[in-house]
Fold each of these.
Amino acid sequence: MSHAEVWVIAAAAVFGIGLYSLLIASHLLRQLIAIKVMGSAIFLVLVVAAGPIDGALDGLPKALVLTGIVIAISAIAFALALLVRLAEVTGSTSLEDEADDDR
Amino acid sequence: MNALEGLAALLLVAGSSFFLAGTVGLLRFPDALSRLHALTKADNVGLLLICSGLGVLAGSLQTAGMLLLVWLLAMLAATVSAHLIAGRALADDTPELPGEQDDTP
Amino acid sequence: MIAEALAGLVFLPLLAACAVAVVPKRAVGVFVWSGLLPLPALLLPLTEAVWREGLVRLAVAGFASPLGIEWRVDALALVVLWLNALIAVFVGLYAARDYPPGSARGGRFWALWLLLTSAMNALLLSADLFNLFVTLELVTLAAIGLLVIDGKPAALRAAMRYLLLALLGSLFYLLGVALIYGQAGTLDLYQAGERLGPGLLPVTALVLMTMGLLVKSAIFPLHGWLPAAHGNAPGPVSAVLSAMVVKVSVYLIWRLWLWLAADWQPAWALPLLGLLGAGAILYGSVLAFLQVRLKMMVAYSTVAQLGYLMLLFPLLGPLGYSAASYHLLSHGLAKAAMFLAVSNILAVMGTDRLDRLAGADRRLPLDTLTLALAGVSILGLPPSGGFVSKWLMLQAAWAIDGWLWLAVILAGGLLAAAYLFRPLAVLCARPATAQAADDGSPPSATGLHWSGVVALLLALGALAAGLAPAPVLALLERGLPPGILP
Amino acid sequence: MSLAIDLLIATGLVVLAWQALVGGSLFRGIVMFIVFGLTMALAWARLGSPDLAMAEAAIGAGVTGALLMIAYWRLRALGANRPAPRSPLRARVALGVGLLSAVLVAMIGLAAVGAIGPGGEAGQALAEALPATGLGNPITGVLVIFRNLDTLLEVAVLLAAYVASRAVMGDDKAALPLPPAQDAPLVGALVAVLAPLAVLVAIYLLKAGSQLPGGAFQAGAVLAAGGVLLMLAGRLHPAPLCGVGLRIALVAGTVVFSGVGLIMLALGQPLLAIPGTWAVYLIETAMMISIGATLVLLFAGSAGLTGTPRR
């Protein structure tokens, strides 16, 4: 079991960078990458924070992370389809410019 | 450090030096075509040396065979992508990668 | 018999959704209704079993909880399952008018509708923290898919904001699950509760998961995405969003605080959650009053009513628990009826801007009646279900001398009266403008469309909840969370 | 020595995350994200789980990178405007929040790692229960036998994502634009070699999945990669209508998994019990087909696919 502390600190740094970028980026594509990167950081914490089973890392969290990776790509794929349609219909790729869409 | 490990170490060092040469070429050469040249040549030979070094270290022929397959596949992908990038670079004769200029936040 | 009923609740709509995605257009209707209509029937044996034993458990795939996933149905889960089944069937009947199963868009709509119903049933049954994460994602994706099915620009932007915030919420929830698994070694909600103590890490995990779920349930001050999403969604979708999708996240917060952290919940946090609820009630009500569009008013009313569900935390006790659970049920029925009525008004009058709806009651008598009846329950006037829950909540606040909570509940009722009577007054006003004059005779009432009847039935359901609360309250009384002594 | 490698990969992750997310052009951000995904795969390998390494590389970096790239290309094709950068005040606030969250997560993580108990109870139960199932790979055991409701719902999530992205498209839009096919002669040769190789590797991953690292998700991702390659090389085109075969492929994973689970229930076994390794292979094959088909369709952004005869 390699050194858990190294991975946890790296995961925390990546999470912080992701959250920073999520708040600062105004392009939705960048925000989606930020959410995917934060997800990977949390998966890292999930695997490392679980206790080792006779030496090797516990197998159950790895299966959870595999499930999480597939869920992450489903959400990102739908978000990208939504983003492209949003850009097509309103011409904007950001949540900020509030064109008034009410009738 | 019997003969096999010595040979493996030699191969690995040679391989990584080729990679180093390829990377220096990537950074130093002026335009896309020469950089492609550096990359495809140096890295492929480097990969071959490293794969063979690992094959020797692994000791079993089956692993060595699989490593060679890795190299073959990498080379196939490298040649075609280099061909496409070169085609694109010549067509646009814009040296940098597409989208380099728009710095969207 | 119970295992078949539980399996049917999740797999019947799921397989129906797969069938809808595959079969040609003309056969979609058969699978839609065969996936939806049996749901209440499947709940009958389950209700009888929960009534008899108080708790029904099923180890999925035959493996017990530390390794496998377990399904558990207790009183609270049963009540919300009944609400989900009623909403799925009745609002589904209404939606069949706007999205007939045979139409081009019908196939996609009904596939998502069935997936949403199946996902919510799976969530309400599950007792596994990671499985709850998976079902929560399926609920979110299906709900947002339904939200954008008309492709209006406002709906697209609201959906994007909702999706981003929901994904962020899921990340925080997942971080909490990671910590709990690290400490407790099991993912089962009830087992993990027993293995964890009042240490720093379990409380941190609880706070992280609660933050994630607060974003998903749009509790004040994290409610920003809800009004735009529910306000711009198609009629039946906004009904299921307000009545069920946001409620499911609040249900999970209850599960975490009252079951997982039953004996180590941080006492300092309970009043804070109560304050969030109070803020939601006041802020949501005031903004509902200021809205120009009817649908936005109803959406802000949801933000306000969700605040009542958070008042459970400061008023912890048998009374408070029954009150909050009953509020969840009655608000679900009333709000769904209200959104359907408003959707009818929008469809017939062409707009839902209050200043152009004068005298609409003569053209839409049935929907105005539904709006009024649902308003009675939201407001909390006897004999509605809303009255029962508010009355119990007042008693709970009275019992612990919680004057602040007493004041908030009463203020909420008054403000609700304000923002509900305003549209009714507009609807029933004689049109002073020339609208009635130019076509001579008063606008004729539109034909009695069965979709209006469905909305009325839901509103009557909310009222019936007020007339016969005894069985549900007795059921809830038997399934009290471990921390609360009867 | 192994600490040095871990440190190298960990710092690589942080630097690449910064490169991908802050500053520079969006295209460069996506490329850096793909490299981040590959480094993440190395991290999973270092943490002793080749399954996750393959999944992260194939799905996390590969298919996600392809989806981001095609979305970026479509946004440029639509000429969508580039939003104005945020105000400096918001930048400082965001920096503060980012730093605070990083410090908090680090403290929480270190406390969690420090207070690790004697191994998770679920993990031990897994180690004991695995031999009885005849599977060697614990992760496939968890995914298909012990916690198979998660996997079933997850394939349903993928199906929901596809149907929802079709709902977003609206009826007027048959399919989203795709870049012109790169149909140089060399590409034809590459496709002739790589496409069958992708299918072969996918089937190998599937078969190996029960004993060695591998499984339905990695196999599905490799299939999807083959599909994307065919599409970019102009052999596969988006089609406005989804053929029956493709529809069945989309729902195959969910239907077969639920079918096996319900039949076992009908036979008196517990719900979703898996009778034997043959059932594991049946379910994994159906899931592989579903995942591959769904990911290719999500890349194409269209309802269906049609192959064109070689010119």
Amino acid sequence: MDLIANNKRDVKKSDGNETLLSVRNLSTDFFAEEGIVRAVQDVGFSIRRGRTLALVGESGCGKTATALSIVRLVPAAQGKIVGGQIVFEGRNLLDLSERQMREIRGNGIGMIFQEPMSSLNPVYTVGDQIAEAIRLHQEKGCKEAWADAVEMLRAVGIADPQRRAREYPHQMSGGMCQRVMIAVAVSCEPALLIADEPTTALDVTTQGKILDLLDRLQKQSEMSILLITHDLGVVAQRADEAAVMYASRIVETADSRRLFVEPLHPYTQGLWESLLRLGFSGRRLRVIPGSVPAPLQFPAGCKFHPRCSKGRSDNRCRSVEPELREVEAGRCVACWHARGYEDKA
Amino acid sequence: MTTYILRRFLYTIPIVLGVLLLTFVLFTVVGGDISVELAGKGASGETIDEIREEYGLNKPLFLAWDSQFINHFKNALTFNFGRARDRELVIDKIKRGVWPSLALTAPMLVGVVVISVSIALVVASVRGSLWDTLAVVVCIAGMSIPYLGFIFFGQYFLAYKWGLFPVFFRPDLTTAQNVALPVLIGIAAGLGGNVRFYRTVMLDEMRSDYVRTAYAKGLSTGRVLFKHVLKNAMMPIITRVAMTAPFLFLGSLLLERFFGIPGLGYLMVEAIGARDYSVISAITFIGAILFVVFNLVADVCYALVDPRVTLE
Amino acid sequence: MDFALKFLGILFVAVLPTIAGCDRSRSIEEPNEMVLHHVLYTRIAGLDPASTADIYSRIVASQIFETLYDYHFLKRPYELAPLLAEDMPQISEDGLVYTVKIKKGVYFQDDACFPGGKARQLRAQDFVYAFKRIANIKTLSPNWAVLNERIVGLDEFREYTKSCTGDVDYSREVEGLQAPDNQTLVIKLTKPWPQVIYSALADTAYAPVAMEAVDYYGQDIISHPVGTGPFKLNVWRRGSYVELVRNPAFRGELYPTEGQSGDAEAGYLDDAGKPIPFADRVVWTVIEEYQPAWLLFLQGKVDAGVIPKDSFDEVITGGGELTPAMKQRGIHLKTSMDPSTYWLGFNMADGVLGKNKPLRRAISYAIDRERFIELFFNNRHLVAHGVIPPMMAGYNAEIKEKGYSRYDPVKAKELLAEAERIRGGRLPVLKIAMPGASTWFHQYGQFLQRSLAAIGLQAEVQYMDGPAFQEELGAGNVQMFASGATASIPDAQEFLSLFYGKHAGAGPNAFNYSNPQFDQLYERAEVSRDGSERQKLYQEMELIVLEDCPAAFLNHRVAYVLHHDWYKNYKPHAFAYGLSKYRRIDTAKRAAYRELVKTIE
Amino acid sequence: MSEQGRIVEARPGKGAGLWLDAVRRLCKRKLAMVCLGVVMVYFLLAGFVYLAEMFDWRVGPTRWGEEVGQSYAPPSSKNILGTDIFGQSVLRKTLYGARISISVALFASLISIAIGVPLGAIGGYFRGFVDEVIVWIYSTLSSIPYVLLILAFAVVLRDKTVLGHRLTGIAAAYLAIGLTSWVGICRLIRGEVIKHKDREYILAAVSYGCSRRRIILRHLMPNVFHIVIIDFSLRFVAFVHAEVILSFLGLGEPNRPSWGAMINDARMELSRGVWWQMAAATAAVFLFCLALNIFGDALRDSLDPKLRIQ
């Protein structure tokens, strides 16, 4: 099946500059027993059609919460989007009804998750699970949807898709499950694919293949990808742009190449160094001292200051939290010490 | 599959043996002799001896070919349960009462399972909200209200005051009309505990990642719950049903008493009170067989609902 | 949702056949059909009179089976009249030989057990057979005890049946039971037994049963009664309901034309001389709980019923009258004395109680019987001042003045001090055995416990189920026990036999009471054929018992029964059961009530 | 949500850390703490009545037998919850009932744990023949209708003498409940032990030569014991109900008031409009069950390592 030819949605072909998704000042709170956790604070970024934005950060910094907020899947009992805007194809998702939102999920925005094995329903065949989304969004009959599902399996590179469609997730390997997940997510040709750590649970050789697959699908259908990862190597190779998240906030955004060449935020620098030294010199791994603070124990001021060589001794860093400012065209950073930051005040 | 079923059937033998042994020990060795009671007031020793002979109570308990235990075992296996204390054949007694009892308890079980699973799904989907807390409180209130409270209320208001149902069993009505109110009462009384149980099951299930995937596909809550979560939650549901279903044939004592349903609800309680050994061994034997059968059915059901389970 | 629907579908499909499978609808009654609707508060054991002894089985069986003699429906004091017998028995000088002429033209009910389904005539041999059948040990009849050592040769017959391995030969001669011809029955007693006419000849347990039926149905005779009575069994759904229909081959009887004074005013003689039975069908529904029985009565689905203890205030005013609401419904109240006495018995063989009369007396004085009756019987029972209930011949009208049953805590405490002196130290915790474990017995037990505690006696109550209670009682393992007795004949002998020394041990004398003086009087009374002499002896014996105090006598039951206006000829009777034939239904009134109910509720 | 819903493994062998952690987390739940408070009040009340009875203190609940008013007096300012048939205070009976009902449930729980946990652990750890026998025993027990089993035990045990002690109503009741209800916990523990047996930390313990006894007691038990606690908190409620059922069948504590006996006594009074005894006992059961259930749920959430939310 030719994914592009089958694209029924009435969308202008993009020139690569049109903004597909724009997140502005998004804040999401989670309710924990200990109190309210501000999992996403004032987050903003945008993704252009056909491009890949990587959202980078350590575990617990709010990446997944951001992703769930975008599709409004934060469970009502656990959390709530408290502010901001999520503009997708010109509409603010936060203003939509639940019914309209369901139309967007799976159809406009697809999602894949970190644990492919447990993210698929163990008691339905993979074919069923793909066909379900197709039936739902494309008003196709059972048979037609099933045929499409088989085609999707073929498209994500599964051999013998006819037979495989009738198998259950437990009969497949992790990599294959992730392919199936991708098939589920892209079966309705979404404009945006949110991939939440799609390769973390997989072994190294499979990781590359899955990312290649995503690349290929992206090229075929002009799909945008929000790639959530903690792996900077992936960012460097696959993303067009990157946003670095630390402690619920975005601390730096940039073109991924420039982020790589010239990180502005000390946190980004620290992340790069730990990756580079490991990769190129074989010297003792340099790690960022300390660890990500627990959401309820965020320090005052810049949340990174206790781990920052400059911030530790700087009174301003310890008392005033820097907001994200565009320091150059297409580059934003939130650090008092970043070059040119204060000029933009 | 066939070998599996065969093997499971072989496995029933020790269990049935165990059940027979346990009831035998409980009621003959420890529980005492029924002949005095059978003989009636002021009976002489000779009548008692005669009764002992008639019921085989004068035979050795264990260590002989003609012992009470061996006979008890032989009788059970040939479905020859003998006569109850009121001289009716135990097997006739059971045949006569089993249908009314099932007409009462089977819809009750189905009703309770279907309704409480549905409520549990809904309640679990709003976990942590005020509705959830309220549901838990109502469930526990329902569990705390004695069964008789439900019966008194239902019989007095629904049947007598408002005339929606017959107050008592009427031979001129259909069984469905006769059991309608008791079934409703049984369901109402059973909901509390069951909703609570299934809510826990559903909560466990809803934490799974595939639920998030299903939502991400754009499925509605109802579809996620009733298609994805429900099928995954079938295991504990099947287990619970399989544990209860074998004993449905015994009916429900209180409902049958209050609504005059000619079932077997009285059978067990009365048999224990009167030490009616033939009835007790019949019940336990049939119960044990059904229990094993239902376990087997449950195993097959597991394999049907969960592809990860195979019958090996 | 497809999966959920499939799941529900399968479950419902599995359930439907069970509901549909047992659909057997039948109509309750036609508008003008005369059907008696009664309630049985316990399921009945069986309809074979020989092998059942419970009162509810007897109530039903008595409509199907008939005896030689029966109580006159209206006359009081109770008197017997011939039923299957032609007239009253001829009794020999020595009181040992009874010769009874059997009515001609009495047929059994038609049944499949007879050749061609056509029943034969009743013969004297059928009575002989009925007695022998009870004597036959294989029948395991609970009714044997009454006949034990009474009829010449019958005990030998019983011995013979013990040795039988196969069928018992009923043609074997028994000297005391002879049928010289089809219409004559001769019974020879071993010693005079003036109560035989009540205890055996008028008791349904000894009613003639067709031999053919016993042979034909074997053990299942219990559910296939074939008698001579006005009704025959139509449906018996065990534990649910019994339905009798009018016996079309019934010989016919007439409603009594004379009664007691006041009967005419009460309307009991409205039907005098009319052929009975009136009812086309008689239905008993087994209802073990009071609430549904009461609701059905109020709905007019049941003709008569007892008042549930807890609905008493709704029905009866403080003055013992019906409440206006009940009167407005046309409901009638009938009260009647029951020939019963209830007591707290003492085991005289017990080391603590047996030798300590002051202790027993103290316990008796400690119980406030009036409060007991108020709490448990809505004030409707009578205080038992002695053994014999007031309605029976032999009742001592002055017994109340003797004060054996008075509530006197002061005296009780005095006696207790004396009791401790006899005991030589503190009294141990006493045990009371209760023959049931229901709420009622719990409260009863608590009442006794509290009564004893009030005079400083510690007691522990043991609640047992029926079998365990009997067993413990028989084994003499109890100290105190709550029990009672109801007379089955209008002669007080049954009550006094409970205190006869030779009945101690496993016999009916659960008190293990033995007093030579009493025993001597008892033996005299047993063979005395003179009613008034007997009654004098009974009163003497009663005083001996009260003096020795083997029991604290508590109460006599008074029955309160309600019935609807349309239910005619309802006169309470303490001894007879086969009364359905006298009852008549005013169908128009019944229909009107049922309409009325629809508007009030 | 992956961060929020991330599955975190229990730290193997470090029971104490898990427990401390659980307690700390539990303390932060207000509702759970309120419920724990309610449960504690019930237990303290039961304990207090027990002591008061033992030392013959004349306080309200131990004076339940006194006549304080008319028979069946409705609730009033004098008797807040009215009186029963003998004019005894329903309030005092309800308070006293806590002692009987809770001790029945407590002892029954202890008995079922004492039987079920070791059997489950042994069966699950050793497998083979021992396991087969244990499975056979509990399969047999569970294939007999529960009411029949409990009734049979109660009937058979009542008034029997065991080790020189005559079993009165209450002892027979908790023995019957305990002896018949260990199956559930045994099954749970067995399953959990089988799961843990092949985990690395147990293999490690085996490899450095721990005795089997030590492995079961020191390594396995701390990691499966939370199941016992959870099961206990939920089953306790079932036992209070079982006491009600036994009383209904006439096999409960006969001489002293328990909630079950009160409900049973009161059921017939309902139709004469005497609702207060039923209401008082039901409310006592309800509040206790509610508190214990909510607390049990919270305990489960904070103890069960699988469910711990980072």
